[in-house]
């Protein structure tokens, strides 16, 4: 069985040990290395070529966001997930601009960490539902949000967009709409191309502007 190789970066030893214990208990996941700094992570990336980099944002020296930017440029086969104590939309937006593929908060449930890793490993983007809800709440209150005069999306694409904004993964969307995962992924790709929006935060903002989601959903 081929295991997903994971590199964990956090400056707290006990936290790293806890993450390692959780992930190593999953049959097809393997923490190939854990380190305390971004600088050490870059060295280990050269050696281990992990599939997933799981990193904190706030560390001494190079930050997790700076590390994510380096990984995007120098190690394109490795996908980065931020695991942070900051559950704010600002941190999530900065993270996705730095090239991360996923954003988790540190009080996430164990199953959510595994879900995020598997989602990102499939080439998708993962955003903690709590961040999605913050984005919906904050942007719905912005005075400058104006609904577009024309709708460039099909009815099915609007449906997929609404479910993305609610925090569902492509696999969950496929189950909800009773379609294949490949079809759901195609709808997702097409709506991103049509809207020229390529991160979850931007999709959530658009969904709010056109009234697909509200803070109460």
Summarize the structure in words.
The structure is a single chain. The chain has two domains: about 5-125, Response regulator (Rossmann fold); about 135-210, Arc Repressor Mutant, subunit A (Orthogonal Bundle). It has ten helices and six strands. It has helices at about 15-25, 40-50, 65-75, 90-95, 110-120, 130-140, 155-165, 170-175, 180-195, 200-210; strands at about 5-10, 30-35, 50-55, 80-85, 100-105, 125. It is globular, with a radius of gyration of 18 Å. The chain starts with a strand and ends in an 8-residue tail after the last helix. Mean pLDDT is about 85; it is low at about 140-150.
Describe the structure in brief.
51% of the residues lie in helices and 13% in strands. By secondary structure, it is α/β, with parallel strands linked by helices.
